[in-house]
Amino acid sequence: MVKHPKVSIIIPVYNSEKFLINCLDSVVNQTFNDVEIIVINDGSTDGSLKILEYYAGEYSKIILLDQDNVGYSSTVNRGLNIANGDYIAFVDGDDYIELDMIEILYKEAAANDLDLAVCNWDRVDAYGNFLSYNDHSQFDNKFLTKKEVIREFFLNGKEMIEGYTWNKLIKRSLLNDFNIRFPKINYSDIPTMFKVLTKVNKCKYINKPLYHYVQNHTSISHTINANNAKGFINAVQMINSILLEENLMLDFEDAYFVYKSNAFFSEYSVYREQMKSSKEVQSLFKGILQPITIKKCISLNKIVNIKLLIKVCLYKTGLLRIFLFTYHKYKKKLKQSHYG
């Protein structure tokens, strides 16, 4: 066990047996050795715990905690509360990282006294096959101020600065000094990471895809139900409260409007099938989409992209669900013909 590590890597695990060995191998074999690896088994019902116990026996840098299932937020908060590193990194038990990810991010953070270092990432399937990646070469090795990083969070439509924990290295003192922890809601990483951004003085972006997000359709974030929809909406709306608390609403009111509008319409697309049979889901989306008006979008033409404006127009005319159904039906046929 490392007494005073430079980096604490926190890995929450829940039923990740299928992906866990790949994840752990990528973490224990990092080229940067001054780390502690805090792994919390959150009441897994598969073989995850056996795998974790084996790795904990083999690697002294691993701190293994086992608990009854309490959910993601309480799990990562427990990890944060015992972490000793100067910086914190998060890795999900389904995913894996490049072997030099921690070295690259830590060297940047330490050399430049960063509050936050962010790297690029890609999506892969369950077999490690590449799926997608967004290039941000114009931001590579660029320093960002608090206002710049918040603006990218709201307005960069290509997943550069998002509410993800796992492509970031965060100064631990920032989290502790401002008592930043994860609220007990679904999608708690969204408001938590946004809160981090409001406290950042210096951030640097590294365009290398050092984190590999495994597209696992059985994970909680891919479960489609009314409770998850409510959780996502609640998480996005919590940002409004944070802007008010931090006296940033005047600077970012319009940008936040664009961000939440894009987020809610994106989620509407995900739930298009459920709305056929669930009045609860229909009512939920009606309540959040109705205040988004064509007039408001046109007034913000400098920061509203054409895709959002088209979605709003289609929604207001009652055609969005028909359009989404037709689009995804065509997309599915195209994919079938490609692999057929």
Layout of strands and helices, then pairs:
Elements: E1 7-13, H1 17-28, E2 35-42, H2 48-58, E3 62-67, H3 72-82, E4 87-90, E5 96-97, H4 101-112, E6 116-124, E7 130-133, E8 142-144, H5 146-155, E9 168-171, H6 172-177, H7 189-199, E10 203-214, H8 226-245, H9 249-270, H10 279-289, H11 294-299, H12 306-316, H13 320-339
Parallel strand pairs: 1-2, 1-4, 2-3, 6-10
Antiparallel strand pairs: 4-9, 5-10, 6-7, 6-9, 8-10
Helix pairs in contact: 1-2, 5-7, 5-9, 7-8, 8-9, 8-10
Please tag this protein with its features.
single chain, 340 residues, alpha/beta, Spore Coat Polysaccharide Biosynthesis Protein SpsA, Chain A, 2 domains, 48% helix
What would you note in describing this structure?
This protein is α/β, with parallel strands linked by helices and 340 residues long. The chain has helices at 17-28, 48-58, 72-82, 101-112, 146-155, 172-177, 189-199, 226-245, 249-270, 279-289, 294-299, 306-316, 320-339; strands spanning 7-13, 35-42, 62-67, 87-90, 96-97, 116-124, 130-133, 142-144, 168-171, 203-214. The radius of gyration is 21 Å and the shape is globular. Helix 2 (48-58) links the parallel strand 2 and strand 3 (62-67). Strands 1, 2, 3, 4, 5, 6, 7, 8, 9 and 10 form a ten-stranded mixed sheet that branches. The longest helix has 22 residues, at 249-270. The protein has two domains: 7-220, Spore Coat Polysaccharide Biosynthesis Protein SpsA, Chain A; 224-339, no CATH class.
